Hints:
By secondary structure, the protein is mainly alpha-helical. The protein has helices at 4-23, 65-82, 87-95; strands at 45-48, 51-54.
Amino acid sequence: MREARLASVARTLNELQLGAAEGAGAAPVPTWGATSDPQGRYLPATEGARGSRPLRAEDGVHFTDYGYRRIARVAFDAAAARFPEFAGDLAEIGEA
């Protein structure tokens, strides 16, 4: 999140949720690296072969469609690694 105070609260909530999820046997999928700069800081947009693409909405909290798709790609890749029998279907869904 763009605002430091909100980002701090979000990190605390993430830690609480992570502990509960792991305690229940879930395999968390870290997405921070896909939505931050190399130093782990807020990243409003990303540069790529198609030029600059916005990751974040104007409010500095939510993601754009592209940002949500980027997170979904990370989740699909993690699911495919854990469940190889679904890798082909997950790849196809991720391209849609």
